[in-house]
């Protein structure tokens, strides 16, 4: 375990005790002598149930949500690590509430919210499948706020396109 203070990987456990579903350990860094606490818990799928549109329930399926994300992010400049991070964020938010049963719609909305911030193309892809737009006007309604935001942001020049002349200044000597 890397010490949070001096980042040396050299510690001893000075105390261990059960803390609900976790084990709480007090550790002492042998490098700097400071103490810190870690919690160890079993990795498991959260015990969530999903309420489907037709009212039936099914177990929360992390892999299914990952597939949805992966499809939306296909060939987008978002690395797999980031995808898994988003997936984890979604799961954390779902398990943060005490609700054991969550409507599938709430999960879909959460995924949309995350994708919207991450990658607009992925967001539109996911939204078009998930929302199952009935016609073009419904789709336009959905993307309109995003487009106007973009237009506002577009007023500023894009970074990195122009090389600044001062970058070519000679190195002194
Ligand atoms: Zn240390």
Secondary-structure map:
Blueprint: E1 11-19, E2 22-29, E3 35-41, E4 49-51, E5 57-59, H1 62-72, H2 80-96, E6 101-103, H3 104-118, H4 120-130, H5 136-153
Parallel strand pairs: 4-6
Antiparallel strand pairs: 1-2, 2-3, 4-5
The site of zinc ion has 8 residues, from loops.
What sort of overall outline do the alpha carbons produce when their principal axes are compared? Answer: elongated
Bound molecules: zinc ion
Could you say which structural class the secondary elements and strand pairing correspond to?
A: alpha+beta
Strand order of the largest sheet: 1-2-3
The percent range for strand residues is 15-25%
- Kindly state the number of beta strands: 6
The helix/strand order is: EEEEEHHEHHH
| Poorly predicted runs | 157-166
Major sheet summary line: 3 strands, antiparallel
Distance between the termini: 47 Å
Q: Averaging pLDDT over every residue, what do you get? A: 81
Into how many domains do the coordinates divide? Answer: 2
Radius of gyration: 24 Å
Q: What share of residues is helical?
A: 40-55%
Enumerate how many helices there are, as a single number: 5
Summed up:
This protein has helices at 62-72, 80-96, 104-118, 120-130, 136-153, and strands spanning 11-19, 22-29, 35-41, 49-51, 57-59, 101-103.
